[in-house]
Amino acid sequence: MSGELETAAGLAVGGLSAGQKADLSGQPCRNCGVLVEQRYCGNCGQLAASFHRPIWSLIGETLGDTLALDGRLSRTMPLLLFRPGRLTQRYTAGARARYVPPFRLFLLASLLFFFSVFAFVGNAGWIDNLALPSSEEQEANTSDADMTADPAQQGGLEQIFDGNGDVDRVAAKEALADGGTLPPEADAIAEQAFDIVDDPRLFLAGLEKWAPRLSLLLVPMTILSLAILHFWRRKLYIYDHAIHALHLHSWLYITATLFLLLLPLGGGWLGLAYGVAIPVYVCRSLMVTGSTGVLMASWRTISLLFSWVVLVFIATVIATVLSAIEM
């Protein structure tokens, strides 16, 4: 996992815990230089603690505090997961100290999601399955199909792959160009595709770098979409839409993480249920935060989901291109 994710995790969990150890008490404050006698600096109020520790130590310490009976996480999660829009409604109404700050919640949720996704993809054997089989395996796998295969097609495939099962780039380009020469742009794209086939794990490492970065751009775009969908509602400000967008994305990341963990148990019906839950949750959340009816909330839900699909598609294409370029 990229270093940016670990840095973000440290920043996210560092501000959640009220019981953070003051391991720098008795020393000059790192912020203003005044001697700190207790947990907090009497001059600037900074906690006398150092976060230069292993990331898992920070996460474990934070979870131990926030999962307590008086922890903000124990009050935040039920509202976020099971009462769409209520957390946003209460937070924007002024009840902020009781709940986890939206951006920290979003950071933690997105970190858990991307850790789970790349761990799932890396351990599921998909990357290894992308490796082309050797000539012996190809011959064994196609022995039953030789009787019905098109001779011209079969001969073309044999020309593309060499004896080790790797792509013969020259032969592949000739096949793509139908015996001619590919244009420079198409040739560059073909080379990138061959690089991905030859070393898919390097490509996955590039995705690990760019996917979290580009996912951050979805939040301001969601804020913009919510502002456009509520442009005639003068009582709703950009601040309200920002809190709502962060809570929506936090819910999506958390539930998507749970979906990945439960996928081996549920199968197809779990995917169907999750696919239905997303628009239902978004619609109900828009009804609560916007104080509107089912029809208006449904129209806004369709518009918002459509914008998400377009944005995710664009972000996926950009992440794929950037990951391929860096190989």
Describe the structure.
This protein starts with a helix and ends with a helix. The protein has 15 helices and no strands. α4 (86-92) runs antiparallel to α13 (238-266). The protein has helices at 3-14, 55-66, 72-82, 86-92, 102-123, 126-129, 135-141, 151-160, 169-176, 184-198, 200-216, 218-229, 238-266, 268-290, 294-325. It has three domains: 1-71, no CATH class; 83-131 and 191-327, no CATH class; 132-190, no CATH class. It is mainly α.
Which geometry do the CA atoms define?
globular
What is the SS-derived class? mainly alpha
Please state the CA-atom Rg, rounded to the nearest Å: 26 Å
The N- and C-terminal alpha carbons lie at a distance of: 17 Å
Query: How large is the share of residues in beta strands?
Result: under 5%
| Count of beta strands | 0
Q: What's the helix-strand series?
A: HHHHHHHHHHHHHHH
Oligomer: single chain
Q: What are the segments in which pLDDT stays under 50 over at least 5 consecutive residues? A: 10-19, 141-149, 151-157
The biggest beta sheet reads: none
Number of DSSP helices?
15
Give the rounded overall mean pLDDT.
Answer: 76
Q: Work out the count of structural domains.
A: 3
Proportion in helices: 55-70%
Q: What's this entry about, in short?
A:
With 327 residues, the protein is mainly alpha-helical.
